[in-house]
Specification:
Chain lengths: 345, 345, 345, 345
């Protein structure tokens, strides 16, 4: 199977390259980047020297259709909504890592992304690619809206409790902490080393685009619409994302009962690992891998559940989950090309 | 005025040295450290070369009484409860940076610190040194229990809203993020560079010693006992601490109304700075200084207040607030020796 | 005395603000920044809240002459050569932190900086502000060319040995390592967090602008022109600069004899600290301060001297030395406003 | 083929596990660690959860002989010299990642390591496992002394020039910069986060154990004994090591001619990548991989060659090269199990 990557020059694009080179059933055929077209990928990214001898090309849907079977869009918000339909209508499988096809409601997209939305029919067709939750729908899909990094960690952390009805949905608070690669290679002051190093910064309080995405998915799992409080923080590290999630108990489970429920829920999900009682995951323990590690604690005094969920934002939060979704679409083993252990330390 | 530091070899001790050398009314007379007694401080800490020509000495209450007027205890939990009373009875002003005299209830200390508590009478005498809140009691005190780093950021962030009754106390959730200097120079694996770097780690869920300290202070401000959910995270940075605090509104204030209330509340407190609407503080903006910067946001959708409160954990969270308290005890300007701008970047 | 800062919005400008606010004999009157004129400095840099209530202004030599006595230029290369002469002719003391007036030979400037040089007469008038070496010339100067960060650490490390004739000048190799603040707030990919973190990068081999500056100063000290090998590395930290300097011995001194020579040489220089035998400085030991710490080692086997010299690049390598030079010009104690201990850890 | 790891609990041991799990022809059978015997590896290192279900065992040569074919020693200096001979005499292939069998001269070991050396006969038998240089000897070996991290980067950087006679051996200066994982998990103050972060530190000037190892290998390549100046620096990062090497030209080659010579020399070495003219490698570009990337520059003014050589110290500087050596011993493709791209960023 031949693949193309649109936005191959960004961090998610580069990670797709690393992972797909390791995939036995996919061959990287086209690297698309408007801004760096014509350059050799090895010159832009010398770490790839000896691995991939390709030039970046400009976007051309016909060329993509001629040479590839699947296209990954690792582009900023607002790009794939225009380019992806061209690929879709030419019969390509499209996996979009941006937010353009995640929200079902065009008005929500326009409010949170501050621009016009993708075609409504396509929004309806798009399958939300949270692999562990939506396997069945993903299996037959042509258009995957790959989840955002914060939603991935949040929703995998929440899903068992939400589906069980064990927590009060209106009480959910998500405190997210992310490394800087999440904001890509954007040339903004906030991404400069001297601004990030030795610093923790809260940002976009009440306005982060991942908020409606999380709410929509919680509503899909529970059948109820509730507002969720979601706050994000920039942490001085490159990779890694943690969501610490708080919710009031609706059922009187103990930590141990929650752990058993989570173990059962993710029994068939090799990329979700539940920590034993009294142990909580750290981001380094999933670095470079497609895992989501989850730890739980019930505070008996406050009748509140705390969920600690970690991922590598560039892998499970972007490129890795995209490939996992391709595996599911094609009916391959979900772990194909992704069975790498985290790098530690 | 002459000062002694017990535990001068740790990070809080070293910071007391840096700040007191800059204090016009205090002279550093004795540096106490059992483990490194006999060594010259400049040899242990070459950055002090040319500033302070002193050897570390062993603890001796008589000697302290003879040569000093005030003693700072920058010692691990469980040390000052035994040594400090010896200094107190010899007439010295005692400022304890450890947790030994913070909890009024001996049973709470024994439960959370897992060791026997200080003398109950002294626990009653000790004044909780949260400078901005307890100025009046601090003014006449001989024994100050200097607050922990997390409680300082949390309580300064909560105080105006709690005293106003504007939030539901039972709903308070504190998500704390701290640099590593907070855990001192302890030789534990968790403090090794390779374990901390490129990592975020949640720790001590439901068991952190600062929990009862925060609850006790909130109860003192509100008259009501409520359990608070408090979670701590280790962040890859040396200095800096942020508490992101969540609470459900009890009154229907807007962000703007909260900001005005906070501005009024801290009108006479030069070390607390309230951020304007739409701006939230980052830890680097207080690095090396005694400031606590606070930003606020009301999420109208969820009727919840988010408070972002940052300090330098070694300054306002330890050595700086200790000196601020000495200034208050002595009736000096609160900023004496502490009027330094943060170092940026 | 009233001061203006041109380029107040960059990292050196911000550090000048921090240090001058602490200077008892200088008042900050004008902050100049073309790109951010009209903004309040506290809004751009919230860490200054409560310290300095000023708006950034556009450059206006008449206004500077009317309101200030000394002007610091913390501007990128190529700016002060045009603006500074306007201030100089209006009688202002001018201290240039950029490279525009450092090289006496206009052709050298044009070769290494790739642009036309400043007026030759002014190049001749400019005094190279390496405080510890050129005190006498600085004392009467109106135009100071403040040294670069690498040259400061290199030349203070080399001066005693070079002046003594103890090393072979042609053998000098300088291996420089710098934190990222040295390259300012430039929006270039190489300054992004994700590119710098967990990375060491060698850059500008054989082409770094500080090369001719170091060679010119070594020639001035020795009377001989020699090529020096100078290599620079970007290190994942914000502040701090180390030069490890290698040279073949011309005289058979032991480490101990070198240490004694260096101690004597810097006897009257409070900002240079020589480490005892067997101890070498690290950059953190001078963080936030105006010190240059130096350690020495003679390798008997290879007859080679190794010099380890560290500074805070933003202080002794820029803003601190500029203020030290103003102190010398005005005949004030060299340490005025600069007597702060390093911040550790 | 079955493998055992002695010292499986340290960073090199853990990296051997990560890489061997990915090796198609080797199965991990025994994990040995005296200090943590009895524990499950997944409990000590939760990042391995789901990968390896094994308990750490105590060292037992008979058991190793019974269950494995090859043993890796990832132990501190002074351990393998006693344990390894027991395995060797039981017919196991032994690959020692420590320094115990690297120096041919027992007196040199005793001088630099400050303890008694291994058996002299075994020192003679041991093959120095610098894969790219000693392939032929490695092919038939039973005992490999795997090179140190600094020597690996230094010698791969030097080999072509040394073998060609293109540089003056007595002029070689190696300025090494390493991440902290190189010093393992040792509980020493210098490895604490707060001491390493925002800091560069020169250490062990003139006394680093890798000095005689480099000199011995240069002598083996050139037939001449020369003293080399070697200085090491600790850099605030976890993984990565750079050696910047300086040498005076013995032949008048240009940079281009050196590059061609290096390309030819490493033509059959897939793990050494030579950078094109004007480009120098950074450590991040080899992170997590077994590559050694090399850049070159001739400074025509000083007639000096500068070589920049980078590796991941835990991979090519330890575990990766050890596996590469096993591949060579067994006649497998050198890249078996090691063909992973670096992780970037």
């Amino acid at each position: 199977m031949k693949a193309g990557i649109v936005g191959a020059n960004g961090y998610s694009g580069i990670e797709l390259i690393r992972l797909l080179m390791n995939h036995p059933l996919v061959e990287l055929e086209m690297l698309i980047s408007h801004s760096t077209q014509g350059s050799e990928i090895q010159q832009l990214y010398p770490h790839l020297t000896g691995f991939l001898d390709r030039r970046l090309e400009d976007f051309d849907a016909d060329e993509l259709a001629r040479r590839t079977d699947v296209v990954f869009f690792a582009t900023p918000a607002g790009v794939s909504k225009d380019l992806l339909p061209e690929c879709l209508k030419r019969g390509l499988i499209c996996i979009d890592l941006s937010g353009d096809f995640r929200l079902k409601d065009p008005a929500a997209y326009e409010k949170w992304y501050q621009q016009s939305s993708a075609d409504t029919a396509l929004l309806n067709d798009a399958v939300y690619g949270l692999s562990e939750i939506n396997r069945r729908q993903i299996a037959g899909a042509r258009l995957i809206a790959n989840p955002g990094c914060y939603p991935t960690a949040s929703l995998l952390g929440l899903a068992p409790a939400v589906k069980d009805g064990a927590i009060d949905l209106g009480s959910i608070i998500i405190d997210g902490k992310s490394g800087v690669s999440g904001s890509g290679k954007s040339m903004v002051p906030g991404n400069l080393y001297c601004e990030v190093n030795e610093n923790v910064k809260a940002y976009k309080l009440g306005t982060h685009k991942h908020t409606p995405e999380i709410e929509q998915a919680v509503a899909a799992m529970s059948g109820k619409n509730e507002s969720i409080t979601f706050t994000t923080h920039l942490i001085p590290m490159t990779r890694g994302l943690m969501c610490t999630i708080y919710a009031t108990l609706a059922k009187g489970y103990s930590t141990k009962e929650f752990l058993e429920m989570y173990e059962r829920f993710y029994d068939k999900s090799p990329f979700v690992r539940i920590r034993p009682l009294g142990s909580w995951p750290s981001t380094k323990e999933v670095a470079g891998s497609n895992f989501c590690d989850i730890g739980l604690n019930v505070d008996g005094r406050s009748r509140r559940l705390t969920i600690v969920s970690v991922i590598d934002n560039v892998v499970k939060g972007a490129a890795g989950q995209a490939i996992q979704n391709l595996n599911i679409i094609k009916g391959w083993d979900e772990q194909t090309g992704l069975a790498l252990a985290p790098i530690y330390p």
